[in-house]
Design goal:
Elements: H1 11-27, H2 33-38, H3 46-58, E1 62-63, E2 72-73, H4 75-87, H5 107-122, E3 125-129, E4 138-147, E5 150-157, E6 162-168, H6 175-189, H7 197-203, H8 210-219, H9 221-225, E7 233-236, H10 238-244, H11 250-259, H12 263-271, E8 279-283, E9 295-304, E10 307-317, H13 322-346
Length: 347
């Protein structure tokens, strides 16, 4: 049975590994014993550092290019580096330059602004998933009589989602019935969460007259349509990736941009960690997608005190500034949580 490469690491080996990872992230150049002694300030001899580097390489934490005696981190080393950063984070994230106060209750605009600001701050691809529509509530129902036999039902959700359903009846519709339906549905459903039994009960209320029940049954699909529009994903920085990315990352970014056409895959990656309100990092093979073997995803969930609604993420190369990425997604998620708490409270 293969040994765990992390078990038994000495404090000195952990420090050397951390210095190698940090320097390689910063410069992209292999890191040798000379740098670690002369510039990183390790209080040991070069020969001791070389022995420790060899041990870390034997454990699969470092490797080295054929043309250099210096070492570079492996995927496992990046993973350990990210885990150490997550463990050292303060309970509350620091400030992040995202101001959503002017957007009032426009969640779509807030999600778009978050993705754009996050991308500009980190120069990586920012991903923000919208709340699933099942978690939103009915804000307003409108019943419009288009002509004597045709009615349009409009359902507007608390997050700005809109569904319309046009229904044509065999006989003329009483204008009074349409007016009653509008008042009844707003009275019974305003503030009620979609996908709950309360919506079904209101639409199938047995105490209503036969004509009222037939009318509500005809427009009921509007309430299911609004839940079938699919979860939305907001992207920030996609256009800038190929322009500003490092030359050695061009291939990775091309794969990522192709993947953007299949947003369901990205939503699945973000959705894997939606259960608890937390911050997480996935590196290389942990992403379980062929196009992302050289990539890393740093994410944080946002939402209400007791329920995650969506996630904020940064997708970039494994050689990313994990410290900055973690601090950025945590700060953005905190601002977005404050915003959605006010929206859901109002509804």
């Amino acid at each position: 049975m293969a040994r765990d490469p992390v078990v038994g690491l000495t404090p000195r080996q952990r420090e050397i590994l951390a210095r190698v990872v940090e320097e390689y992230i910063a410069t992209g150049q292999p890191v040798g014993s000379h740098y670690l002694v002369e510039r990183a300030g390790l209080k040991v001899s070069s020969s001791t550092v070389r022995n420790e580097l060899a041990e870390l390489e034997a454990r699969g934490l470092l490797t080295h290019p054929h043309t250099s005696a210096g070492r570079i981190p492996t995927e496992l080393a990046y993973r350990l580096h990210a885990q150490a950063l997550l463990a050292s984070q303060q309970p509350r994230p620091g400030p992040f330059p995202l101001d959503l106060s002017e957007l009032r209750r426009e969640i779509d605009s807030a999600l778009e602004a978050t993705s754009e600001v996050l991308s500009r701050a980190t120069h990586m691809l920012a991903l923000v998933s919208a709340p699933q529509l099942e978690t939103t509530s009915v804000r307003h129902v409108e019943i419009v009589l288009l002509n004597p036999r045709t009615v349009m039902a409009v359902v507007i959700t608390s997050t700005g989602g809109v569904a319309k359903r046009v229904v044509t009846f065999e006989a003329s519709i009483d204008a009074g019935l349409a007016k009653w339906a509008r008042e009844y549905l707003n009275e019974r459903l305003a503030g009620v969460r979609l996908g709950t039994n309360a919506v079904r009960r209101a639409l199938e209320e047995p105490s209503l007259s036969a004509a009222e029940r037939r009318f509500l049954a005809a427009i009921q699909p509007a309430f299911t349509d609004v839940m079938q529009t699919g979860q939305r994903l907001y992207l920030g920085g996609a256009a800038e990736l190929l322009e500003s990315g490092r030359e050695d990352e061009a291939g990775l970014y091309r794969h990522i941009l192709v993947m953007l056409e299949r947003r369901a895959a990205l939503l699945e990656l973000l959705g894997e960690a939606l259960d608890p309100l937390r911050t997480w990092v996935r590196v290389g093979g942990e992403l379980d997608h062929p196009a992302l073997q050289d990539a890393a995803l740093v994410g944080a969930t946002y939402g209400l005190t007791n329920r995650a609604l969506g996630a904020v993420g940064l997708l970039g190369p494994v050689r990313m500034d994990y410290d900055k990425a973690i601090r950025s997604v945590r700060g953005a998620a905190q601002e977005l949580s404050r915003f959605v708490e006010e929206v859901y409270e109002d509804n």
